[in-house]
Amino acid sequence: MTLHIENLKFGYRRTDGFQLDVPSLRVETGSTCLLLGPSGSGKSTFLSLLAGVMQADQGRIALAGRDFSSLSGSQMDRFRGTHIGFVYQTLNLIPWLSVSENIALGLAFAPERRARMSKSVSLGVHDLMTRLDLDPASFADQPAGQLSLGQQQRVAAARALIGAPDLVLADEPSSALDDANTTVFFDLLMAGLDRTRQMLVVVSHDARLAPRFDRVINMQDLIRGGSAA
Amino acid sequence: MNRHMFVLLRGSLANRAFSLSLIVVTLAFAVALYVGVQNVQRLTRASFENSISGVDLVVAARGADVQILLNTVFGLGASSNLISDKSVEAVAEMSGVSWVVPLALGDSHRGFRVLGTAPDFFEHVIAPPSGNSLFAAGTRFDNVLDAVIGADVAEKLDYKLGDKIVLQHGVGEYGADHDDLPFVVHGILAPTGTPFDRAVLVSVEAIEVIHRGWRNGQQLVTLSPDDIEHSTQAETTHDDHHGEHHEDEHHDHASAGGLDAVDAVFVGLTDRRTVVRVQRAIAEFDAEPLSAVIPGVTLAQIWQIIGVADRGFRVVSLLVIVLVLLAMTAMTVLSTDSRRREMAILRALGASPRTLVGLILAEALLLSVCASALGLGLAMGVSAVAQQWLTQTFGLSVGLSSGGMLPGWQELMIVVYLVPAALVAGLVPALRVYRRTVQDGIMVER
Fold this sequence. Notes:
heterodimer; A: alpha/beta; five-stranded antiparallel β-sheet; five-stranded parallel β-sheet; 8 helices; globular; B: alpha+beta; 2 domains; two-stranded antiparallel ribbon; 15 helices; about 55% helix
């Protein structure tokens, strides 16, 4: 399983001259990758392209051997649900669903991902909660909105990890957290990652995270022209 | 819809339980209003069309069906012509005819019309409200100057048994009083829900007696109650004599009593299925031009005219439902606007815009089904209570026998219309969500 980008061009039609240009990028199974750049550097755009929500003007993005441009809109939605786990900067969760329901929601639109699991959903949720240091006994049935920010981000990580999707994408997942929580979050996220079948791509402006990753790519190297904002 | 979707829908609804239940309750009230209006409409119509359910034919001098019925049953308009005693007898003797009850109209009492009829009237024409007796007090008339008054008359004029009442000649206020021969209230009818609640019933003989000595609305001779004793005796004997073809003794008076002509005759048949044949036989009667009206058919025609107001109510109650649906749409639009983040998350998890549209529509579906069920229940509860009250107060018992409390198919049809209408109402926010999720993708900075 790899994430493979070739000759990706985006933003040709934009008037401000901002343009994303990735001649070649390969992320291999088991590896972790940090896309480093200040806000407004086109990170979100790039992430949307990787998640298949936006379409490139040129070039190709392929995950697990599937070229995104060969998939229809609804196929891409399903592909994303099946192969990609996603963590936002903040407000990841449906606040009125319980913690365990939020985690299980990672499988809601991805029956294949559910089928890949060797154990039951509730057992998988239980395992992930334990691994992400969220005591199932006290948190499983709590509404997600009542948790602290640090806990919420870990629930989001559990949701992205459940059913072991090929690619875990995270958009500034720790920027709302303090240093202690950031450390805990990445420690647990990295530990929860199945290195035999998953890869992790994190977008951040925080250069201090760099040592944790196998590979660091500077967003500046992927952009030409103006600003993405 | 899989389990997760169900969890999502349930959670989303539970999260907005308060505002959603307000909408459901409002919609339920609108449904109940509609169903209630329909129910009342159906009941009044049934009550109306069953005004004289015991009567198979109304026979009068040739005229328009509607006019004949309005005159004989509702006391509106006037008779164009009378039917002679002989014709009444002939009708009574026709094959298939079980009984005839004569009707002499034209007098009134303080705004209520007076019906001259035979004692059989109380047996055949009006039915007591289910389970009750026909008379609230007293009995049918025994003596010539006995009167039976309808429930409304008794209530409005505050009459009790034994009260003396004076009839007026004619229906208007200008009518001269028959004050030489006052009647005695001998019976008070329980409410029947028919126009006869607003009538004073006397015997045909009495009508004849009080008009003795009158010509062209002018009183020429004044009588006293003593004068009539003998003459009525004589007439009764005479009736017995030529009334032998009748099945029981009460039918004696059917042959127009002491009058040589009456306004109309209510006819009962031995077999209802022969009604068309008897109707034709009467229409083809040689000696006198007669019309025979089937009450149910003509009452339905009259309803077509007077039912307009009812239809108006129904339109208004439908509009109320439409308004509530609009309110529901507005609320859903607002709620989906505030659920933008939720939608983006679901998109990131692999939900297609179509799925999100499905969620919104499922919500509308669920709300409308709940509202329909609640509204129907509400309407049934209310009409059950109302029914009891109507029966006790107005004797509108007809609904009970025709399943008044249960919503009929017509009322259930509202569900068939409401649910799709709610889905259409849900389409507006759903399409907004669709458009926006495609624009937003998975990134919403909030």
